[in-house]
């Protein structure tokens, strides 16, 4: 029994049975029969003990009168229920317990002499204010409900912590003010309502010992171990940002409470779906695993689990239990996991899949050193807690993925999914070794022997169109400004207007000639620095043409009419780029499904794309040159479809812009390296860099001996270097002519010599605008082989790699 009340309280406590005694007195006076006789006998027995009515204030008074008090309370504590109910007499919110039932006594006895019963998660501050709220609610009619569930956490003899929910019956308690009580006004209540943390204010309004709390309370406990453990687990998992040793110990304690197994231990194993491996969890201060040795970084699932457990946990995503490890080893002599468990003294276990949104995140391991303690029956108890475990593991895994992504974004940049696996592998190694003695620097990511493809859909004449739209807008703005200034010059009296108008007319003349690079900037600066101050001064002076000046400033805003042509141009470019990019991305889904490859695109005045395909980008899949040829055929079809998309929608564009298409053929494999400084992939090596040089120069190249560009509206241009490439692409063109995508006429061109590059050639063929593939569909290289004659495929026998650029 613990009679230690809290240090301070607004209550002056008196344990009194006056209300129960008064009940017996009424029964004895008004009733007849056994009940009246029983009441009279109780009253006679307690007559020598007036303190039972007047109030008990000392521990000794309870101890000395234990038997009498027990007889008095017998009506509330039936003997037949004493081994079933967990019940006692107490004072609300105080650690005072007596007259416990036999079951309550047994629970406290098992906890040991050193155990002191106490409320969970309450401090003196909360108790004091809770007592004040009881007074306010009872005496002043407020509704300041501060109550929350109360629990006792009591260990069993074998160390399992059990949780008991406390229910109070306060029918035998009454409140009355003492001479220390302070009268509480409505203003005081408002003040207290907004100052929970100001304990001094509460003690001012409710001084220590200012209210009598007289009587006794009844508490009843019920075993809420599972519910409380689940709640505790949820709080533990949510409250800890890191999965550290303290969190792990808390989780183990919760599972021990649920399963009532003192030696139960918990482990976790991460699952990598990409590599089909198990690994230790990547949490800080790792949770341990009983399945995977600590010196093993990762292991194939098939090497860790036996066939039955692998099928259950990974494939079917259900529990797998072993109640007797010795029996399991005898029945599965080739399994490696049986001996691993036995070496650690494990006799029974449960493996539980952690699954979120249909994705296996890992395996929760519950193990015990006692045979049969864990089995297929109590494995089902995990259903109560697994949702919280799953959410937490998912959160931790997501956090780890975000950390990986953050490092990739910081050190590399946004990475295409086809090569993300390699960046992820490198960053996981970096994070694993980070903070350890050896310093690990992130390595550059390279892929060797990959085949490049480059293409673009370029907006024709975009620079000239932009300049025209800019000229038109500036001419309109200058005209508007000149008109306003001339009217102001007649009536405002503002000096220097005439000189400003002359300068604006000079700018008008300049705009009608070739637009220089800095013309727009000069005009805008002059308008801002000289013209607009004059117009704003006129607004302040309230000259009669203020509405016209206000309209001018509205039109001069970026969304006004003086930016109309530029907005139309920019909107047109944005629409074209977006349509082309969306269409290319959609077609990429088809190409990626055929064989994974690196893909990047750029929006400028049009859409460019780079493709790299090779064994190192998809090391788990078999690679041959047919995959390259299939991608080249796909590229031609994709650009044709993008041209068709623009052709059929150009009439609804704000500006009538056209596009041209270009492909650069390059047959030799090369290496690409991720440039850490530029955050992007680039070709690696001086020789391979020539491919990049050609890419940057061919879009403005002309046909040799002419001023005509190699690209033309409505035509696809393919630039190449040697005869083998010519034959290969002519076969693709011939096949697509058969399919009605390209016209029959083919132009064979020579490209003018570029700086450092000579000998380039080009094939140009017109795109048929009256035919189109169904959305997303494409012809494959395999289909081409089935339909073309062998003579048309003679390029396949050419030696590889092909001749380099001259």
Sheet having the most strands: 9 strands, mixed
Shape category = flat
Low-confidence stretches: 795-806
Mean pLDDT: 82
Q: Please report which band the strand proportion falls in: under 5%, 5-15%, 15-25%, 25-35%, 35-45% or over 45%.
A: 15-25%
Given the structure, what is the number of helices? 26
For the record, give the distance between the C-alpha atoms at the N and C termini, rounded to a whole number.
99 Å
Helix content: 40-55%
Query: Structural class of the helices, strands and pairings?
Result: alpha+beta
How many β-strands, per DSSP? 23
* Quaternary structure: single chain
Number of domains: 4
Tell me the Rg in angstroms. Answer: 43 Å
Protein name: GAF domain-containing protein
Task: Tell me what the structure shows.
The protein is flat, with a radius of gyration of 43 Å. The model is unreliable at 795-806 (pLDDT under 50). It has 26 helices and 23 strands. The longest helix is centred in the C-terminal third of the chain and has 31 residues, at 564-594. The chain is α+β, with helices and mostly antiparallel strands. A hairpin with a 5-residue loop joins strand 4 and strand 5 (161-169). The strands form 4 sheets. Strands 15, 16, 17, 18, 19, 20, 21, 22 and 23 form a 9-stranded mixed sheet that branches. The protein has 4 domains: 11-221, no CATH class; 227-407, GAF domain (Beta-Lactamase, 2-Layer Sandwich); 462-565, no CATH class; 569-797, no CATH class. 45% of the residues lie in helices and 18% in strands. This is GAF domain-containing protein.
